[in-house]
Amino acid sequence: MGPDEARGGEEGRGRDALPDRLATEILQHARHAGLGPGAHLREQALAEAFRVSRTPIRQALEMLAAQDLVERHRHRGFFLKALPAEPAGPAPGAAAAEVGEDPLYARIAEDHLDERLPARVTESELARRYGVTRSRLQRPLARLAREGLLERLPGQGWEFLPVLRSPEAYEQGYRFRALIEPAALMEAGYALAPETAAHLRARLRAVLDGGWKTWPRTEVQRAGAEFHEAIVAASGNPFLLESIRRVNRMRLLLERRISGATDRERLIRTNEDHLRILDMIEAGDREGASHVLRAHLWQELRVKRC
């Protein structure tokens, strides 16, 4: 079998696996967005969010329907039926490796941060640089695109988007969050789903109960980002959520490069702040939660300036 035939076979397997991966990511998307039973899962919106066509999205939704997690209404589309329980912490044994981390994604992201890659690249160029097939590139490229770091160009090209490389840009990201996140809490119709609140509380407790020490650094950071995105998602305003997600992705990409021991006191204080904000939201004190969230973000920025 020649190399072209082998590559063709691998790409075929990649296409077959796409709906299965999308099914998992659709559930994660629903969880982060605070969607509850009965929420309309619109094919076109999901296709745009994951930057794929509607066909694999429909296949993924049909797979979820077969698992009784989604139901299909004739002429109306797919609706969320239930979200499976998600473990509070990372998978067993994950402390030795990054949870869900793709080493190829990490290499591309690091090279982009260090400006070792041109602003525009083709898949063929990336495949030669990293010694992989073009099909192997699809998942890390799709993730970088979802995180707002990469954009597909007509044909086979991709363009990297600006990231928070400088301390000034990093600080601007925090200042932006301090404006947007507290405002999201005051949006009319704000509603944090009980199952989302319960999931966030379990994650925060797991960090405080030892996760800060045993989890990989990126997983602890991801838990914090998940909290902030879920708080904004409950506003029901997709523009606010998309803005915060993009800033968070760029922030986390930069913070993964920070070495050194985990600051126990800061992590405990941060997660205690998160729990306090969550308590206030559930008690109906959104204005108080908004003030605490703003103070929390400014405090985080002051600590990270040091």
UniProtKB/TrEMBL annotation:
<dbReference type="Pfam" id="PF07729">
    <property type="entry name" value="FCD"/>
</dbReference>
<dbReference type="InterPro" id="IPR008920">
    <property type="entry name" value="TF_FadR/GntR_C"/>
</dbReference>
<keyword id="KW-0804">Transcription</keyword>
<dbReference type="InterPro" id="IPR000524">
    <property type="entry name" value="Tscrpt_reg_HTH_GntR"/>
</dbReference>
<keyword id="KW-0805">Transcription regulation</keyword>
<keyword id="KW-0238">DNA-binding</keyword>
<dbReference type="InterPro" id="IPR036388">
    <property type="entry name" value="WH-like_DNA-bd_sf"/>
</dbReference>
<dbReference type="InterPro" id="IPR011711">
    <property type="entry name" value="GntR_C"/>
</dbReference>
<dbReference type="InterPro" id="IPR036390">
    <property type="entry name" value="WH_DNA-bd_sf"/>
</dbReference>
<dbReference type="Pfam" id="PF00392">
    <property type="entry name" value="GntR"/>
</dbReference>
<feature type="domain" description="HTH gntR-type">
    <location>
        <begin position="16"/>
        <end position="83"/>
    </location>
</feature>
<protein>
    <submittedName>
        <fullName>GntR family transcriptional regulator</fullName>
    </submittedName>
</protein>
